[in-house]
Write a structure and sequence with these properties.
The protein has 13 helices and 15 strands. It is an alpha/beta fold. α1 packs across α3, α2 crosses α3 and α5 runs parallel beside α6.
């Protein structure tokens, strides 16, 4: 009696593994010759030819010119078929929603921004419609429809509680608190939807193309209009029992009012209490006497020193608990303070915590939350589209 389909070690599973290895190489390196794919996978020329034949027939790869400069006939180059699948990535914030549509290679095909103040009464009951409007605008720009989407990932402040399916830790986004939000979004978009914490997605972006490349243990501290952290240990993102790991904005610190009330805390201009009331953008502006521009506010040495001292105090608590090898500072405050802020925070950390992690300022030019959402959506889509085991 033969092994059931999909049993490890059977020809169909080995073929699917080889197919995926070739596809991953083309994603990572771009166009490659058959010979080079064989060299990188360690597979024979006949086996590599069979793989490429299967993938081309399945519409997952295509030929794209040839490689000259070597003796003999020019070698044909293979690449991922960009149109084999598409994904949508969204970033939601208190003033609107941005959507990007990309092909399976990660190339952007369309983008749309919908301005909508999160606390406005007309927004609270039509969150799904606003998301659909943003995605539809990006799809139209790309010349695509909802049926072309293989995955959709949305980044929001707060986190989805895995037990209830409800967004927590983001009281300033009242339109996102429906227990059936994911189902509502999947219904209007026609595709499964993942809702992910925005700072966690920023950490994904840092791992992919930022300051945390090649680091398996790091903390991303996002300091902007609000404050949050993503904690990555052993290459794994720490989420916590209710998705609240890294919500350091609520962390009690000397000199800060307590953020009592949990999810019912209203986001005020002082950040609502806790660590965020000391270092978030509103606190920095207040320290600078109401100066609105963060760069101008942090140009004052006294303000810069005080913000660094406060940041170091909060970060010391995090470092003492998780002992990361790297701390990345991201968000508007970190960007405005730049290296001058990093140096001062590093000096202030001396003696506050025994571990001494590296400290870096994020240098990502684009929206890191949107970048992280896109990378996460691509990973989900490729795991489905590149799986040829059922072919």
């Amino acid at each position: 009696m033969g092994a059931p389909p999909g049993t490890p070690g059977t020809p169909s599973v080995l073929r699917a593994m080889n197919d995926r290895a070739a596809l991953d190489l083309l994603v990572a390196h771009g166009p490659l010759t058959r010979t080079r794919i064989g060299e990188l996978t360690g597979l024979s020329k006949p086996t590599t030819s069979q793989i490429l034949g299967r993938l081309e027939a399945a519409g997952l790869v295509r030929t794209t010119g040839s490689q000259a400069g070597r003796p003999g006939p020019n070698a044909v180059l293979y690449e991922i078929e960009p149109g084999s699948a598409h994904v949508a990535a969204l970033s939601a914030d208190p003033t609107g929603i941005t959507a990007v549509v990309a092909d399976i290679t990660g190339a952007e095909r369309g983008r749309r921004r919908i301005e909508a103040v999160a606390v406005a009464e007309d927004v609270r009951h039509r969150t799904a419609q606003l998301v659909a409007e943003a995605v539809e605008g990006a799809l139209q720009q790309a010349g695509l429809g909802y049926d072309d989407l293989a995955a959709t990932v949305i980044g929001t402040p707060g986190a989805i509680d895995p037990h209830t399916g409800q967004l927590r830790y983001a009281p300033h986004l009242p339109g996102w608190h429906s227990r059936t939000l994911r189902a509502e979004l999947a219904d209007v978009l026609g595709t499964p939807v993942s809702i992910e914490n925005d700072v966690n997605l920023a950490a994904v972006a840092e791992q992919y193309e930022g300051a945390a490349q090649d680091h398996d243990d790091f903390v991303l501290a996002y300091v902007g209009e609000g404050v949050g952290a993503a904690i990555v240990l052993g290459g794994t993102l720490l989420r916590g029992a209710t998705g609240g790991a890294g919500e350091i904005g609520y962390m009690p610190l000397p000199g800060a009012p307590l953020a009592r009330g949990g999810d019912t805390v209203v986001a005020r201009t002082d950040g609502g209490g806790g660590f965020q009331s000391l270092v978030a953008a509103p606190a920095v502006r207040q320290l600078a006497g109401g100066v609105k521009d963060l760069g101008e506010a942090l140009a004052d040495p006294a303000v810069l020193d005080e913000v660094a001292r406060r940041l170091a105090t909060g970060l010391a608590a995090v470092v003492a608990v998780v002992d990361p090898e790297l701390v990345v500072l991201s968000g508007q405050v970190a960007q405005a303070g730049g290296d001058a802020l990093r140096v001062r925070v590093e000096e202030e950390l001396t003696g506050l915590a025994l571990p001494r992690p590296q400290l870096r300022i994020s240098e990502l030019a684009d929206d890191p939350i949107l970048t992280g959402a896109l990378r996460t959506a691509l990973t989900q889509a490729r795991d489905t589209v590149f799986d040829t085991s059922g072919a």
